[in-house]
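FYI - complex with zinc ion, inputs then prediction.
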Amino acid sequence: MTPALGAGGSGFKSQRPHFNFLKTKSNLMRRSQKPEWQTKIAKERIEILFSLAEREFKEHPQRSRRYVELARKIGLRYNVRFPKEDKRKFCKNCNTLLKSSVTSKVRLDKNTRTINVICLNCNKVSRYPYK
Ligand SMILES: [Zn+2]
């Protein structure tokens, strides 16, 4: 029971998606049609990378950043969105895990009604609205 769709033969040998990436336009169209198992694996890997990033956070901040970077790359590639909590967990500029009072400052801005999270590594301010 193999769903062979005639797309260049989806046999066991054609596990080389990079070549298909060269056919640019059709690649964009296929974006959301990644097989479910791939998305599932991507999600698992992202979770693993985040937990690794947490673990290495104290002793190897550089490594931790790298893990977050990789998780984001996987997310981009497989069109996996991070849940809200995960999205705010890291700095979008330098991939540092944001922990209040350790690597970030959190301030409420009453005028704009936003939570301002300031990354202490690169001073980037992220704003999130509150109700
Ligand atoms: Zn930062």
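The chain is about 40% helix and 15% strand. Strands lie at 104-109, 114-119, 125-129.
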